[in-house]
Design brief:
Blueprint (H helix, E strand, L loop, with lengths): L4 H19 L2 H23 L7 H17 L9 H21 L4
Helix pairs in contact: 1-2, 1-3, 2-4, 3-4
Length: 106
């Protein structure tokens, strides 16, 4: 685990959410766009924040990002679960945001 893991995983989730935006319509698309913007902000904050990679919060944030990335998966079989994915992505963003606020990065 390196100090860049949080920024890289947050950026990766941002990219996956962007891919979902491209294939969704209606309220789901708008919610995903909001999540994408939030994740972009968190990615930039994670790049500049001085984080303790050994802390439980850091590890929890990485785990939440992994869960969100896994929920999205690679393809269309997950698209029928878009409401669940939106919720999981929001939870991951909440955990990352809490970590960055505690570290003074936001």
């Amino acid at each position: 685990m390196s100090s860049h893991d949080l920024a890289e995983k947050t950026a990766g989730l941002t990219s996956r959410v962007d891919n979902l935006v491209a294939i969704q319509t209606g309220p789901e698309c708008r919610e995903l766009e909001r999540q994408q913007a939030r994740l972009e902000k968190l990615t930039l904050a994670a790049i500049t924040a001085a984080l303790d990679e050994s802390s439980k919060r850091y590890k929890d944030a990485l785990a939440a990002l992994d869960t969100a990335n896994e929920a999205i998966g690679e393809g269309d079989e997950k698209m029928q679960q878009i409401s669940r994915i939106i919720k999981i992505v929001a939870q991951a963003a909440d955990v990352v945001e809490t970590l960055l606020k505690k570290a003074g990065g936001l």
